[in-house]
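Exercise 7. Predict the structure of Diguanylate cyclase (GGDEF)-like protein from Halosaccharopolyspora lacisalsi.
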Amino acid sequence: MIERRHSPEPQALPDAGRPPVRVGVEPERRRTFTGFSLAVLVAGIVVSAATSAWLPSEYRPELLIIGPLLALGFLLAEQLTIDVDVKRVGWTISFTEIPLILGLLTAPFEVVLAANLLAGLGTQVGRRAATHVAYNAGVLCLEIAVPFAVATVVNRAVVDAAPTWFGAAAGTLTSSLISCGFALAALHVLGGGVRGSAGARLAVRTLAVGLLNTSIGLVGYEVVISTLWGWVLVGLVAAGVVVLYRAYSGLMREQRDLETLSDVSLSVARSGQACPGPSGAEVAPADSSSEEWTPVAERIREQLNAKRVVLRLGLDPRGEVDTVVVGEPLPEAASGAGAVTLRECPLLQLPGSHVRSYRALDAPEDIRRALHLRGAYESLVVPLRGTDQLLGAIEAHDRVSRWRGFGRADTRLLHTLASHLATAMDNRRLLARLRYDAYHDPLTGLLNRAGFCEMTAEELRDHDDVVVLRLDLELLTSVSEALGYAWGDRMVMAAGRRMREVLGPEVPLARLEANSFAVLLVDHTETSAHEVAERLRSMIAEPYPLDRLVVEASGVAGYVSSAPADSDEAETDVDLLLQRADVAVRAARSGDDGVRAYAPSMGQIFLRRFQLVTQFRNALDTGQVETHYQPKVALPGREVVGAEALVRWSHPEYGRLAPDEFIPVVEATGLVDALTSFVLERALEKVRDWLSRGLHLAVAVNLSVRNLADESFPERVAEGLERHGVPAGLLTFELTESSVMADPDRSLPVLRRLRALGVVLAIDDFGTGYSSLAYLRQLPVDEVKIDKSFVLGMGTDLSDMAVVRSIVELGHSLELSVVAEGVEDDASRDQLVRMGCDTAQGYLFSRPLSEDRFETWLWARTTRSRGEQADTIPTLGS
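Solution. The predicted structure, encoded as tokens:
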């Protein structure tokens, strides 16, 4: 027959770690099932008593043999079973119809009933599953009483029209249906009822199995009573049937084991498939909640037919422990305050990864105590080990469906399950770490750019008024250069912690790159956002104690709202918001207050700069960039001795651009090499042209920091001089003190190699550098140019005049030629002549002129350089 094996139990979870998760049957349904069990027991007793009173019985000596044999038959039928799981209820396909039909044919009702009760209840007690004795006893009584009543009624009804065994066969079939019907009723009471069609299919299958068992028992009975040595034949057939059933049971067990392995692996994998979005909390990703592991533990319990399965997650000594319990609740002693803690429990001291089997009868004292706390007689325990740590453990307590307890098949299954589960958990941890790292900055644990953009996009879908605020921590470059990058990283981490303290744990905070941070403010006005920016800027600007040092820092902030006041629609482009906040930061860096809100005009300024950068190289190729020349005049004779090459850009959209507008942008983006090469090439071409026409004039070209850091620059200069056939003495390079001192270890060797070529080197804007006097003697230069700010102020400021005089005297004392820039009137020229200045340059003589206009000016005012003529030429001011 097919009978209900055991009912589902409430599933509880003990541990001193996180709060236990409880699932399973509700207390109300348990109480209902208890009442139902008592009703079944009463019905069984009443029907059995009525049947005993109705059916006559007589004592025969052979009953002393038949009774024990029937009890043994029922006992073997209970042990030689095939287990099947339907939903949360276990079903057992057994051979009880065989001893039942034999009892109907050979023994009175009381003997068969006693044999069935002895075998059935004895098996339940032996399995340590006697919690439903009332229900099982009632069903066992009905499984015998009703078949005897049906057999008697059928035999009396058909009389001689059917064989004598017909009534016994009919009664035996009703036993299977009774067991199936009460099992379905119990399942309905417990809240796990099946649909009518499924119940009907189960009843048909039950009847089919019962008919097969009944036929086997009946054929065996007829063979024994009608054939000499028939019992031998029956014994051989029975042995074959038993072997066949056991083989089929083994195949089903292997199939269910494979299904369980697949289900467990898929459950763990699917529960980790949902990709977590970025989180504002700066913590490592945690494992899934205990509820997600409950189906996994339940599936393991069902396959092992265990009374209880305990799944413990996170046994790393540094972490907390999640515990999931399915099946029978753990006793109070195992879940109360006096329970043995996880790492103290001997059951969980698990080196290696093998399954440990513990039995209370032969276990050491500490193991027996641990089992007693769990209310278990037997336990299988296996660790869940990942690649580098202990991930958890599985405990299975008391096998229900077999008398002998857990066997080798259960041990192998649990070991394989643990290996699959540990691998799946390890993969989930790795995947969670990869997902976390994809959205978080590894140094600070804050969101990174991708995480911040993702979270901002989510907030923009729900809110129209978010504010993106960017902050830059200043002076980090100097800290890293002086103390090392580790110290700069420590400042970044400290700044992140300070901002988190100001903002609280719920506000999204990100480190975008290097020393740049971003904050997302929801439901903030621009006024409140400005206040937050001020607080953050003030906090990160406080001194940073680094061991024995205290490092000063500063910060700048810029912010932009997604709902600007001059727009009807909210801005939902995250990248554009970040770009505008960065524009506001750049504006704040050039201002005085350090905090700026984005304004559309800022975007136009930076857009123009961006266009200049992207269009500059094309401007060089298309002739938009030209070389202009401003003459240098010797004092006091006012002979033209050279010119300074200057660049001018005639932009097709913006018109004539001032050098101060585009040259800093070009230098900042690395295009200054192309600009220097362009000016140098045009200057050498012009000097060659002048030489071919008899003019011996020098040309000065300005150099930048990047040129001085380029070790191949002297070779390029030498190649240009040789290619154009220009003497090196007619080429002057002007460089500022700051460009030289930015990296003197690299720039000085380049300057010495240029000087070795014969090129003239000049210090431009002399007098404005912080290290002028200290390094002037070390620089391989030929002349100094007095900054025009001092020359322009000579007529009104005695201090400027003193500075100019000092520079002239200093230059001559070092045997350097002195050039004065910014000469705009005769008085300044006369003063320079009296001071002994060598050369002058300024609007008094000429503004910078294009090539054609400069040559026109030159041929009208200069002399032939080959000594053919020595006329003095009047200046523009004459």
